[in-house]
Amino acid sequence: MRTKNLLKALTICAILSSLAACSNNKSAESSSPNNSPIQASPSATSSPKAQETAKGTKINVTAKEMVFQLSSATAPAGPVEFVVKNEGKKPHEFVVLKNDLPNKKLPLKGGSLDEDAKGLKNLGEISESKLTSGATQTLQLTLTPGRYLLVCNLPGHFQAGMKTEFTVK
Ligand SMILES: [Cu+2]
Q1: Interval between CA 65 and ligand 1 midpoint (Å)
Q2: Which of 70, 125, 68, 73 is nearest to 94 (CA)?
Q3: How many angstroms is it from 13 CA to the middle of ligand 1?
């Protein structure tokens, strides 16, 4: 009886498969970009595309203990407006660095990122005195193609996870 039911179920699935119904889920999963380490914030739209405005590309950033969440981890070259909201309880900073390091190993100094290391260049930042708990601050930069790091380099924060990669194409 069980075998018969199983065969029946398999047959139904086979028929549905031929109508491309059973295989829909599988193809949707395999085509999704699930290799990105950066998670969109829950309030972001389902579209992973960067939001382009008259001022350039707008990237919404949520800062909290101890992570940054981006509406998009990439942007086209040109003006980029980072809108950073601190949803944490502590003050945080937001530092944008051009990353020309040849490998993934990041130079540390005293447990924080060594922003003065060769291969890194600080392009701009929002200080912790402005990015207090609940505050929203913007940082506008004109970015060229390449790799970037977005970090909070307050003591302990970088190593706790407040770092994320950003790519300009
Ligand atoms: Cu921080």
Answers
A1: 7
A2: 125
A3: 51
